[in-house]
Amino acid sequence: MDPLTALGLASNIVQFVDFTSKLISTTQKLYVSSSGAKDEHLELEILARNIQDLAEHAKSRLGGVSEPAILSIEDGTLLDLSDQCIEVSNQLLYLLESVKVKGQRRGWDSFHQALRSEWKKEDIKALQQRLDRISNHLNTRSLLNKQDDVTTKIKLLTVQNRRLEASRTREIKDLGDGFDGIFNEIKKEGSRNRAALRQLSLAAEKGLGYASEQALLEFIRFDTIEDRQIAVREAHHETFSWIFRSSASEGCQSDENFADWLASESNIFWISGKPGSGKSTLMKYICEHEDTREILERWAKAKGQQLCIANFFFWNSGRQTLQRSQEGLLRSILYQILRQCPDLIPFATPSLSHGEGSSLQFDETLTTTKLLGAFQGISTHIATAKVKFCFFIDGLDEYEGKPGDIIRLIELLKSTLQVKICVSSRPWNEFEKDFGQDKSKKLYMQDLTRGDIELYVRDILENDVGFQELKQRDSHCLDLIQNVVDAAKGVFLWVFLVVRSLLEGLTNADRIVDLQRRLRLLPTDLNEYFERILFTVDNFYRKQTAQMFRVTLAAYDPLPSLCYWFIDQEDSSLMEKLEVGPLSKEITSDRLKQIQKRLNACGKGLLEAQTISPEYLKVDFLHRTVRDFLLLPEMQQMLDKWAGEGFDANVAICEATVCLVKTTPQDYDHLRPTGPISDLLDTFFYHIEVLEEDTKYPITIEVRLLDELDKALKQYSEAFDSDMFHLTCSALSGRWRYEPYSDGDLSVLDAAVQIGLRRYVLVKLERHSLSTSRQANLLLTALRRNRAPATQMVSLLLQRGFDPNLPFDQEIGHMNPTVWTFFLGKQWENQTPDNFFHVTKDLLMHGADANASLIIGGKVITAAERVKLLLSADEARELEPFLNPRPKAVQKTRGHESRRKRFIKSVFGRRERK
């Protein structure tokens, strides 16, 4: 149990016992509050409600979707005590309701007298004894014993706050200091200090609130949220400085005044330009420049409001859908808003979660509708929160859908949050129509970057020794710089390529006439330039060139440089022959140097190793325009011809990632859940899924790759005592929110069931018999999937004889559920309504017990009753033949026993009378 949940529950129980004991043993007057409710009634009800909320929160965490866990003896005792307190409170509240205050002089003089009137002496004594037993199990010493756990939890909150860059640093520090002070007070006075106990309960509640905030931020965030911005080239020194000059400034180049827009209330500013003109570089420069924040801070403070800046860089070349979709944009912006303005979290949460209070749980999937609901929730409280928003959104033309869809979304965000937004895109007609009508709120890169291009060309060439020597011999060298600027037509990428070509010429001692001729011969059209570069590749290297380009085009995410080293090896059995064990630093360094030379020789500068991830270099295209060029039909035909028969990029990537998994270093940086190995496994399973869905691939290829990964993970775990299988689960959780249901005996088969690799799973089930425990865990894993193929995997397992009534091998709270009841209790939330109906029908048809019992909301109900609650009336009627539970024998009750006695026994439990 979470330390803060346990502490909050325990402190409330101690308060409850202390308060209730005094209530029944002393002669306290029944004063009436201003609201007409008795003070005792109110305090008793508040304490009972706090205990019940915290107990439900603890049970949901212990038996919930994300954290099935074995209940510790201490936690079990705490929940037992909370249940007893709730029972006692229900009885006393019932009594208080029955006692009517009849004025100051008449009626009951004390609660004690009320007890004596309603109950027998032995019943009151039994109640006090029960409270004493609770007190003996849990006292202030129990609270103090949790101080170390709470301190550790506060440290974890601090670390997580820093990782998420959330704005709760001061609050969490204050909370930790507050806990120290409260514990010191309790050490002095114990349970007598009721104020300290209340403060302890409130502090625990506040800590749980911060933990929930972090959980929401973690839920919204995704791993590649900053990858595109990191990958964009930094602006060359002193370029783009003109962007911050206002219209009144000397040297302002045009009427397109970005600085004026930053300081004004205007809503949308559009940065446009030709492909390769530097739009993304400028957007990165703006987002990261201190002047942007300074101007916006003045704008917000003038209205007495807080500033919140957020940005998103669309990336069509990014293989994760979130990098090029509306969902990715909304999640990124929402994450940045909530981490800067955590007080807005309560208003965003309702559309992203279900449940109430401390039992709140986040939905398994985020849709555009839910995310827009979160923005709508925020919008209703902007005035009170006093926040001004400014968003920067790069690359609208890299959005995966229609331009009109993303334009409407931008307009919706603008109107919902009263935000101002800077967007960038290529000059497509749709964007021109909606964003390009106001000349003062747009700019075209090619019209404004001549000075930057000249600065760049001059800086690069004049710092080259060959050019310096040539300039001393020939005064026409400076003309070359102007010739490049004139021919560039505002396209920075073309300039970059041309300057690189000129530097090659200078390396070969080209004369000025040679350099001028070289410039004249270079195509000014980017596609023609790329084609020219491609056909300069030596015939000897064309096969490797095509294979490298094919792999880069197919890759789920930019691959590490070492992946290309393994792909470049002409050994079809290298994956199987490679031993498990980390490469030495010397070998790793040598291979990185080798592959860099191979990339230069085969890629001719169109492929480059970029520092997208801080862990190591990854290979990607020089620019998006290179990818666009290679996807042209004629280029695809040429790559197929060059690559030769028998080469498949998806298979090559899977083999290379297995090789990298086998040779990874054994250290935390590589093995942490969000580290390089997790990324590799994520990439592997993406490409395995491609093989599964395309029937042109024989199943033998899939089995070979998955079995080799399985063997590698087992060997790695044995050799280095590292839990590689749970890294596999971590990799899967990034895209499918997957967690295994077993702490042991995991294999790649678990992952295959989760992903939906039916062909592979069928082969493994035909070859191996599984224990009932493994069958239960695999069936539960299939039931957790939230995508449509879940029905097919569940059907496959049921047809292979998996029993839905198998007991689940982990204890959840005090229950030992079956696969079927656990699915009905929690996992149905992962399914779409249509999916749930078909899965439920399939389970019932294969023998799921309609009479099985489960606890929902503290009540015991049958599986049939639960299904009927979750299905529509028509669906329930269709399943009626399976939902007729056999009647249970009814136990006779003693009619002569009074209702009062039966009620008291239900509260106090059975006891022997003498």
Automatic annotation (TrEMBL):
Cross-referenced InterPro entries: DUF7791, NPHP3-like_N, P-loop_NTPase
Domain DUF7791: 537-669
Sorted UniProt keywords: Repeat
Nephrocystin 3-like N-terminal domain residues: 254-426
Alphabetized Pfam families for the sequence: DUF7791 (PF25053), NPHP3_N (PF24883)
Protein name: Uncharacterized protein
Gene source species: Hyaloscypha bicolor E
